[in-house]
Write a structure and sequence with these properties.
Number of helices: 22
Radius of gyration: 28 Å
Helix content: 40-55%
Largest sheet: 8 strands, parallel
Distance between the termini: 62 Å
Oligomer: single chain
Strand content: 5-15%
Number of strands: 15
Shape: globular
Strand order of the largest sheet: 4-13-12-11-10-7-6-5
């Protein structure tokens, strides 16, 4: 029996739009009611006709007009979830509570909370600090750490600084504001691998110059390292330290490219490339290819800079590669002045989803590995360690120092202080707050005088909060923080301090082979200072599925 065809209800809006257009047009012709309704109905009718005729979107062909409302809601989904659905404590990637405290401290307004914590303190993973019945009273929150104590020009750094964000990823006014705020607060501003721009130099705040694999600001035309250009900028009084970037938490081992269409005269000037030319950051360095080569490069940079501290930043990946670098230190007696551990939590750099979510070691485990390796080889006293990874509050700083870091860096926290609203449009150039964009119509709306004061306020008020935590804990300086001061809930009925939860090596334990940790027992012996290649047993595993 032949099935009777019925009118598809999904076409209803389209048909009503056509009927409305015809009806309203007739009313205008007969009664002179105006063209507003015909224009509105006509626009919807035209949209429905286009949906039916186009061939790229099946949903639009099946649901003319109505499908566009779905696309609209889908596009606005992140904002809807952020403002109307997510709780104040849900981190996606930063909670409303985390952002609010940054905004309040940046604006220098009350950051206190009433009626107790919104956090469930009995949930697994909840962390806190223990206080003392003999609290201290400190006179200042300007906590500092000496980096490069064996250098001719050591640097006294704040324990909380601006992490690497390049001009090119951030707008000119954002860079100006960050550097001005850093100058006001006497803390450092990492340039990112995009080198030193005119917007870093104009305010005159302390800089850590990051040298990436593209050698921007110190490169020959073929992309290789240029000693003369490096010396010229590295000896500037404003440049306090040099940081060689091996990898970053947002996209470790990836490299990157800034398309030529985005390389403006100002970006070209800072990076030492031609206007309109693709700006390529290779996945690895060309100035060295071995652990020993890295340390020789660091020594050369220290010499060219006139004796300033030189170190490297890395996100931890294959453990044998990190061990190879440490073995090279032991064999050659060449050491970096500092190491910055970048957590796999990602950062401001746009990256593929798999890189952001599933590549690179998270900061806690990465920092523990670096700290333990240096302690276990008796190198820790000579090498300062910084760390970065979703640090926005005084407690974040305290727990990171308790795990073994000497100081902390933050990128997104300082972006919030500039007014970033976490719109997640950093990679599109359509940043609504004018922070992560190269569109002058957006970036120029960011008021430098106002925002630089907010950067200063955020740094100052966060360190004031750290001072309060230290006082309540009976401590006098952040360097006194250790694993005994932070506690984590393991289950509903069990808690452990970091001292009991994590394994901390005794000085020299790794050299004596007394670590009791699988990662050292399995990989340390086979790491080689002359290569980043994996151990032989790992290479063999790559040839078979038989384990």
């Amino acid at each position: 029996m032949e099935k009777t065809k019925t009118f598809p209800l999904r076409y209803t809006v389209y048909v009503l739009s056509i009927a409305g257009f015809i009806g309203s047009l007739l009313m205008e012709l007969m009664l002179g009611t105006g063209y507003l309704l015909p224009v509105i109905f006509g626009a919807f009718a035209a949209l429905g006709t286009y949906d039916l005729l186009q061939r790229k979107h099946t949903v639009s062909r099946n649901y003319p007009i109505m499908a566009n409302f779905r696309y609209l809601l889908e596009a606005a989904g992140p904002e809807i979830r952020q403002y109307f659905i997510q709780s104040d404590t849900e981190e996606r990637p930063f909670s409303r509570e985390q952002r609010s405290v940054v905004y309040q401290r940046a604006k220098n307004v009350l950051d206190k909370r009433p009626y107790g914590s919104q956090l469930d303190m009995y949930n697994e993973g909840f962390e806190w600090m223990n206080h003392s019945l003999a609290p201290t009273r400190l006179t200042d929150s300007d906590f500092r750490i000496l980096i490069g104590k064996n250098c001719e020009k050591p640097y006294s750094a704040s324990v909380f600084n601006i992490s690497a964000m390049s001009f090119g990823s951030l707008s000119a006014n954002a860079i100006l504001s960050l550097n001005t705020g850093a100058r006001m607060g006497r803390f450092y501003h990492d340039t990112g691998e995009g080198s030193i721009s005119r917007y870093h130099r104009q305010p005159g705040g302390d800089l850590v110059w990051e040298i990436g694999s593209g050698y921007f600001g110190c490169r020959h035309k073929d992309g290789s390292f240029n000693e003369d250009m490096f010396r010229e900028s590295a000896t500037l009084e404003q440049v306090k330290m040099i940081e060689v970037k091996l990898s970053q938490g947002a996209k470790p081992g990836h490299g990157g490219i800034l398309p030529g269409a985005k390389v403006t005269p100002e970006i070209a000037e800072a990076r030492g490339v031609a206007v309109g030319e693709d700006c390529i950051s290779p996945a690895s360095h060309s100035a060295f290819s071995t652990p020993v080569g890295l340390l020789e490069f660091i020594d050369r940079l220290r010499e060219l800079s006139g004796g300033k501290p030189v170190g490297f930043k890395l996100a931890i990946g294959h453990t044998w590669e990190w061990f190879a670098i440490v073995k090279a230190m032991l064999e050659t007696d060449r050491k970096p002045d500092f190491i910055v551990v970048d957590g796999g939590e990602g950062g401001t750099g746009a990256a593929p989803l798999e890189f952001i979510n599933r590549l690179g070691t998270p900061m806690t485990e990465a920092l523990l590995l670096v700290h333990n390796t240096l302690v276990g080889t008796n190198l820790r006293d000579d090498i300062a360690v910084g760390a970065a990874g979703k640090i926005t509050s005084a407690f974040n700083i305290a727990r990171t120092l308790a795990l073994g870091a000497d100081w902390c860096n933050a990128a997104r926290g300082y972006m919030f202080s500039l007014g970033c609203i976490q719109a997640l449009n950093c990679h599109t150039g359509r940043c609504p707050s004018g922070v992560a964009t190269q569109d002058p119509r957006r970036g120029n709306k960011l008021d430098v005088e106002h925002k630089s004061q907010r950067v200063y306020n955020y740094h100052k008020n966060t360190l004031d909060a750290l001072q309060n935590l230290l006082e309540a804990s009976g401590l006098r300086h952040p360097s006194e923080l250790g694993p005994e001061h932070v506690v984590r809930r393991i289950s509903k009925t069990e808690v452990n301090s970091y001292m009991d939860l994590f394994h901390f090596l005794e000085p020299g334990a790794l050299l004596e082979g007394k670590t009791g940790l699988t990662v050292f027992d399995k990989y340390w012996e086979f790491a080689r200072p002359d290569t980043f290649e994996p151990p032989e047993f790992i290479l063999k595993l790559r040839e078979t599925k038989l384990r």
